[in-house]
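We modelled the chain as a single entity of 163 amino acids. Its sequence is:
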Amino acid sequence: MPLVLYPGTFDPFTYGHLDVLERTLRLFEEVEVTVAVNTSKDTLFDAEERVALARECAEHLGDGVEVARFRGLLVDRAKERGAVALVRGLRQVSDFDYEFRMAFANRKLAPEVETIFLTPSEEHTFVSSTVVRDVHRWDGDVSKFVPPPVVEAMRRKRAAERG
């Protein structure tokens, strides 16, 4: 069965990410959640934490989900793993502009790897990792936006920041 990659920073992993992952598993039996290491982004969680949280959030989905960390060109990872497609979530029109450009760049670099766009359920269209980090920054309740393992990790992070 073909493998697809579901790439992202996942900082943090949200219910919207989980929703797109579940939708992907309806179409493909094997999905790698590819956690991007992007040194230009200032992340709340380091790469190892993001991988661990994504694994914990997706463990109930079974053996068809792998989580891996990757640094570099995504199409190189796709070719290395023999993936047939990249799955990207689109929440709103503003996401499309960026994703559309990336899809064409990736097609130039690896024409054999398709890009598939999936939309989350309506209740998750406004959820973004940026919104979650902002709510967290101001001591708000993030439990409606992220799965319980992420809520707990954010609570621990806040406690460590306060010393």
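As a brief sanity check on the tokenised model: The CA atoms of residues 7 and 74 lie 8 Å apart. DSSP finds six helices and five strands in the chain.
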